[in-house]
Amino acid sequence: MNSEKLVKTIVDALEDIKAYDIDVINVSKITSLFEYMIIASADSSRQTKSLGNNVQEKIKAAGGKVYSVEGEQTGEWVLVDSGDVIVHIMLPATREYYNLKALWSGKK
């Protein structure tokens, strides 16, 4: 599955369960580890976990692969690694604190 199709699949999966402030950042010029980073916000730890599960299911259903998932225990920050695309699903306070968008895109 190419990266653009994977990004669309993931964004659709996030929108299915009402994630918001979804940012898709192309990081291919910064790192060779992956091409895109997707950052999304959720209202509760329960929603972050549901979003993480939905993203995994949709990636697998589309023929993609999920290499690892982190943070499902607490749900404050769930990370889904699908190879060329890394997905961060975060509670707003966690997202603001770590500010990954500014770190990876150079924007504040």
Protein described:
With 108 residues, the chain is α+β, with helices and mostly antiparallel strands. It contains four helices and five strands; from the N terminus they run αββαβββαα. It has helices at 3-16, 45-61, 92-98, 100-105; strands spanning 20-26, 36-41, 68-70, 77-81, 85-90. β3 (68-70) and β4 form a beta hairpin. The longest helix is centred in the middle third of the chain and has 17 residues, at 45-61. It is globular and about 30 Å long. The N and C termini lie far apart (31 Å).
Provide key terms for this protein:
single chain, 108 residues, alpha+beta, Beta Polymerase, domain 2, five-stranded mixed sheet, 4 helices, 5 strands, 41% helix, globular
The amount of beta strand, in percent, is: 25-35%
CATH architecture: 2-Layer Sandwich
For the record, give the distance between the C-alpha atoms at the N and C termini, rounded to a whole number.
31 Å
**Radius of gyration, in angstroms, nearest whole number:** 13 Å
Element-level helix/strand string: HEEHEEEHH
Number of strands: 5
